[in-house]
Amino acid sequence: MALIKCENLSLGYDGKAIVENLSFEVSAGDYLCIVGENGSGKSTLMKTLLGLQRPLGGTIERGDGLQKNETGYLPQQTVVQKDFPASVKEVVLSGCQGRLGLRPFYSKSDKALAVENMEKMGITALADRCYRELSGGQQQRVLLARALCATEKLLLLDEPVSGLDPKVTAEMYSLIESLNKSGVAVIMISHDISAAVKYASHILHIGKTVFYGTKAEYQKSSYALMFEEGGDGNA
Question: What is the pTM of this model?
Answer without folding.
Answer: 0.88
